[in-house]
Amino acid sequence: MRKTPLLILGIATSLFFLAQVTRAQSPAPKVRAAEDGLALTPPMGWYPWNEFGQEPQNEKLIKEIVDALISSGMKDAGYVYVGPDEGICFSRGEDGKLTSNLARYPSGLRGLGNYIHQRGLKYALYTDAGTHTCSKAMPGTEDHEFEDMAAFAEWRTDYLKVDWCNTQGLPRHSPSVPNVPRGPEDVAPAYTKLRDAQLDAGRPIVFSLCSWGVGEPWKWAASVGHLWRTTGDIAAPGKANWSTAMRNTTANEKLYAAAGPGHWNDPDLLINGMDGLSETQNRSFFSLWCMMAAPLMASNDLRKMTASTIRILTNREAIGINQDPLGIQGRIVRREGQVEIWADKRLFDGSQAVLVFNTGNAPADVHVTWSDIGSGESAALYVRDLWTHRTTGKHRGGLTVNVPASDVALLRISKSKTFPLPPVIVAESYRLSFRTAAVKPQKLSGAITVKTTGSNELPLWKVRPGLPIWLSVAVTKHGKSQKLSNTVSTAGLAKGLYHAVVRADNIEPVSGLPMSALYYDVDLEIGGEEVRN
Ligand code: GLA
């Protein structure tokens, strides 16, 4: 079996990132995402933990969820990362290597990844930095960091959550990482080693640190991963808990300065659509997560959602402020009694997002002033309500909104009457697989189609140079969709398996900022060997 190295190349740090990190409270860390272009907007997807806990996580469940992600319209709204959490996915063999738990995942973990990639979704998996995962059902990465990260790359993982249970034995001192709190809460050495192991394994993977806020990752982890949990768990599996959700909101809000493209505060998975939440709470919760530029990882049972849950989870105008390319985390700028006014979230077209959240038990009339958004009171502005989808204005000096108890008004305020949506990329597939039995020169071809559901067309995707000699890619544009046409030439290739990861880059045309890189896998099999893992 022969393999070509993965094709991952550096990307120049843009002025944009420099601008973002100057917002942070501590000296600017190097941003890992500036190189890999991953998660430049908050990750969106689905993880099982909130609804299911450990049971019944298995291949059947994940495949049914994948199908529901697509049929419910969530994929088209931008939810892309999906896979098991602590789902008893693998064990460690005598040789120290991880092997798939075939009783639960009969296609193997690579097979499950293929199923996900072929449907235009990205593959999320889970592990732990300690000796074992939290329930001890799976081995952790301690003392196996490099071989485990190689296994995750081999399974074609795109997103990896790394938990912090059973870590008592890990080293706690990392002189090389700036801004780390020293002492028993120093989680940086372990996560930094895992980052190095990931880079060594060579696959671009979104790295989600899950130390529940231990070790203050918002101060240093932008150079290590792409997002970090800021709080404890938002719910015990099976039931939403409003007061825990509010606890997480309060803790996460304060950390606004640390968030930006490719480095996000993560107040935990969504609780939308779970038992224990009213429709109003569902809407308010989703608005808060959008306003905080928090990852939108749904965690409910997508196979049985109400129309209201689908409407909330797929509200593209709310998602638009979450997926805004500037990546600013909004914050509370003013309190009026029980009402919070959230703002300081400038958007890519010069408009601003504002959230009025009534935490009280009675309806409230709230006057949003233009000084809340840093504008002069004489400005004449249009206001778009992102839940009623109505635009009013021009308003001068502010506007008054009536907000029922526990409810929100989620607004976008602009000088212009149009409210463009930022790009959300939806792909037909993230994997191309070519097979030929004959060892002779041949040309094979296949395409990946991607579209943007934003308001504007995108420039042509730019494929990174450095493809292996057997692969070439040409891009064509048809309005909002683009085709990446792949040609494989087998001339000179021996029998075996070949693999490449293609990377393409784009910029957002309204803001001119870099977008998350687009990656997909190309497999080539010559001579009829079976691809198995
Ligand atoms: C921790 C994490 C949760 C979940 C469980 C799995 O509690 O914070 O999100 O992954 O472990 O055991």
Order of strands side by side in the largest beta sheet?
9-8-7-6-5-2-1-10
The stretches of 5 or more residues where confidence is low (pLDDT under 50) are 1-26
Amino-to-carboxy terminus distance: 13 Å
**Quaternary structure:** single chain
Largest sheet data: 8 strands, parallel
Mean pLDDT, rounded to whole units? 93
Give your account of this protein's structure.
This protein has 533 residues and is an alpha/beta fold. Helices cover 20% and strands 27% of the residues. The chain is built from twelve helices and 26 strands. It has an eight-stranded parallel β-sheet. The protein has a six-stranded antiparallel β-sheet with strand order 11-12-13-18-15-16, with helices on one face. A four-stranded antiparallel β-sheet has the order 19-21-24-23. It is globular and about 75 Å long. The protein starts with 14 loop residues before the first helix and ends in a 7-residue tail after the last strand. Mean pLDDT is 93; it is low at 1-26. The structure holds alpha-D-galactopyranose. Alpha-D-galactopyranose binds at residues 49, 85-86, 133-135, 163, 210, 212, 233.
